[in-house]
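Standup notes, structure subgroup. Blocker cleared on the pyridoxal-5'-phosphate input:
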Amino acid sequence: MVDFKGLIREEVRDLAYYVPGKPIEEVKRELGLNEVIKLASNENPWGPSPRAIEAMQEALADIGRYPDGSAYLLKAALVEHFQLSSEHFMFGNGSDEIVQLIANAFFRPGDEILMGMPSFPRYETVTRIMGAIPVEIPLEDGYYPLEGMLAKLSEKTRAIFICNPNNPSGTVRTSADLREFVAKVPKKVLLIFDEAYLEFTHEKFSGLEFLAEGRPVIVLKTFSKAYGLAGVRVGYAISRPEFVDALNRVRPPFNVNSVAMAGAVAAFADQVYLSEVIDKNRQEREALTANLEALGTKVLPSETNFILAFFPGKGPELAQELLRRGVIVRSGVAFGYPDAQRITVGNHDENAKLLMALKELL
Ligand SMILES: Cc1ncc(COP(=O)(O)O)c(C=O)c1O
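Run returned:
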């Protein structure tokens, strides 16, 4: 027997799988439940603007054709909003895809790539795929480890992922913290700001400031979270034109589909709906946090649409017990916090159901 495994690149053979939150239908089937809620993937329980749904329905009429690979209409909307020229924007099938494309375009074997631990797991995976070295730095009191990262800078440091706010901690670094940090990083290091949840934060301080200063910066944004379009997959990068050009060279030409683009354009135009979602999320997050703290749970100060809650003495079995009661959350085991659960802020009824289940279990 020939062992064909040798054909697979060494860097890929032992890569960790990304384990997504279980889909609702799968849990219903497996556990014979009629009602299941999912608070595991930081989705938006209110979904997108109704105008986005309407626009996507209209876009179906044209799906016999390839999408506009230049994303002209979506780019035009962003150009207007950010007051940057169109060469500063590129698009991905979710910002997830752009994380991969950044690695393809920038990371070389042996380069050191700095990232928080725990943070968004794809940073590590894409780094390994390229044969670069992930340098994972533990969070500092639940906050993104800016001080620790400075200590790990070396001649080999090629890029730094700055997840702000951070997933899974939900915590955000202030503009003052970030300015102080960036001032100490050598100018040749690529700074990747992942701002998937920035819309939910109070300060809304973006890495765009450092781009404007002439730093080598890529800012990542997504329509999956506050805009409620996770299922259709649209994210974008804002960066220097020469970096956007590099990313477009490695990008598959029709990576964002036409229905998704129509939805994103309409969702972006409806900033009133976005504000309503942000307000509802904040109210629900504050109520959920207060209710969990009343149960003796420690909750990190989140500015996102999810919280990291610690249940001392309760390990991963808590997630399993919640699952049996029809509530899907994300166990902290995967990111090294076995007594924590990452819980997406749901709508009012979903949060009530979660709290009821937790009261029975604690
Ligand atoms: C920090 C962070 N970045 C990026 C993503 C990817 O989002 P998407 O690919 O849906 O744009 C996620 C998704 O959960 C995330 O948590």
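Discussed briefly. The domain at 4-46+272-361 is CATH 3.90.1150.10 (Aspartate Aminotransferase, domain 1).
Next: hand off to the docking folks.
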